[in-house]
Write the structure tokens for this entry.
Amino acid sequence: MNAAILTNAAGAPQAVALSERVHWVGALDPNLRTFDIILRTANGTSYNAYVIRGSTGVAVVDTVKEGFAGDFFARLESIADYSEIKVIVLNHLEPDHTGALPELMRRAPQAQLFISQKAQSMLKGLLKQDELSYKPVLTGDFVSLGDRSIHFLHTPYLHWPDTQCAYVPEEQTLFSGDVFGCHFCDQRLFNDQVGDFRFSFEYYYAHIMRPFKEYVLHALELIEPLPLKLIAPTHGPILRDRPDRYINRYRQLSSPALHSEISPQQKSLLIFYISSYGNTRRMAEAIYQGAMQVPEVRVSLYDLEGGEVSPFVDLIEEADGLVLGTPTINGDAVKPIWDLLSSLTVVNLKNKLGGVFGSYGWTGEGVRLVEDRLRGLKLRVPVPGLRVKLIPTDAEIVECKAFGLELAQELMGIRAAKTLDISDLM
């Protein structure tokens, strides 16, 4: 297959054919190095937009970042007149996809704008225009272009609430929005022509889609049955060579690996700790012993001093419960605990069990601060944190065992409403 030719003989931007009826009219941004503050872009990105031609009119799917509108309009004009545009589809409303929209609507006022149901309030907020004509759509809705049609798939939270995909069955082409995309700029455009973009594809998933794995799986239920020759995302290479590979990879990345390691009846409880003088470590070991008394809870104990934080994120994402142990130093929890917590913003922790414990010398604020952070991350913290002043006594070690048992019982839904009798653990 030939690589894309992005300009004509005169050097002006021109559309690139994906098929006889579908063209790319996007723009390249090779010098971008940071996207949305948090994403690194080693060789820039692309803003992909598309044109579909039917027997009764033309549709434009997504636009580009405002600063690149010139390339977008030049490519659009190379294959269509504005009077032919009947439909504009926005799969996602971030500014990198809507920057050229106001001008496009001014040039093609007859066009009908199609957005997802959840995009309605966001559209007005982003474009600051009170009078906008648009049609909200859901899965099952479609618009006809004569011998071509666009069918909408409701795929929210990938990665904004408003996101959707659009499928053209006559072309067996999915316009996927940010799904299956990545920040990778290569003027050859197609996945069978560009450089090795696997790292970018995986990095993009990890930082954009990973927190919404549940929604990814729901979207795949809609996408996997579709006959597909091509996936056209809004960033990165156009996937025309074996597009099913990228769907399968999303399925792999979004499916819990732990399910193959433990039985459906078991729960996973992770205990992480860091200890200055061994006191918090002694507490952690006792909590571990207490939790181990519930047979169906798979308990793991990790010393944060002995490992990097980042590999633990995968474990935490698939676990059912998370317990953190920290001493209090200078009125705060220690840095490795905060490093671990800050790394968890890329995963979904909602409704996981959380617990905190630790030793202290003076006031012991660290445990309470970490409890607040766990609640902020949407974990439930039903058992009050356990604090021990300086070296734990034998009686306090028994309390730690009781704490671990109570957490494990809570995880299994068998925790008694009454206060535990600590003597049961001696």
Remarks:
- The chain has a mean pLDDT of 93.
